[in-house]
Amino acid sequence: MSPMLDVSDAVRAEIGEAEAERLLAGENAPGDYDCTSCRARGNTGQERTSTVLFVGEETAVLAFAHAACIPSQVVTVAEDQLQGAVRTLSAPESAPAEPPAAAAVPSPAAEPGTGQRQAVLGITCGQVLIDGTARSALVVEPTGPIARPGSDGPGDDFLPLLIEQGFMPVTDVGLLPAPVAGWSVLVAMGQLHAVFQPPATPGGQPVAWWQAHQPLAVTEGWRTAAAKNHTVVVYAAPAGSIGQQPREDLLREALEKAAAGGVLVAGTMPLTGT
């Protein structure tokens, strides 16, 4: 019986028509697999499965995911990150896996794309209960003020710049923020890689607004909620508004305090990749 595979036009264009047909015929498709999104087991003969092609500068890796988690697509990943994933996939099964990071531990980040000042964006992963549903969330807070490009003033333009991009002020953390057009969150190989903003020019490629120096491990619950809802809620607040909260209940308290103080913005973004 042929596998129940979805091969998107983008994946087909990358791997070639002949390879795509071999996959669909079952010649090169696995039976059992670990979903590259939720990490749970799947079977290509029993459930609809998406082909996901991770592409680096020199390396490409074809992975599989439950179609209910993500659609078939091509995901661009930094070459060193992809090589690390290849080493992990090819390691002996007896090798111990690295434990996942705690849900509310901040990760160091690259310089933000919203200003010229040398500030660093810290990012915290956690789940937030919204309208009775557990939602995967990212909380972004810079280490210092963010100046508007071209400005030499001492002010902090972090929130105004994000509002201009479509983020909306949060007055109630219990309500789902509106979608932010053109933005997305990249999770590849079960780890958080980047938050993308729209391209600088029409027809261009999305630009990494935040990118992890090393892929950030997230909890199984965070991955499951993100895959179920196909979205991630991204909150942002000025430096010093949220802080490094060790637990999700304390993180929510900090979010509610920032919202009450009028210094919290947010947007809902689609999950890109896995």
Automatic annotation (TrEMBL):
Residues 90-112 have a biased composition (Low complexity). Residues 88-115 are annotated as: Disordered. This is Uncharacterized protein. It comes from Streptomyces qinglanensis.
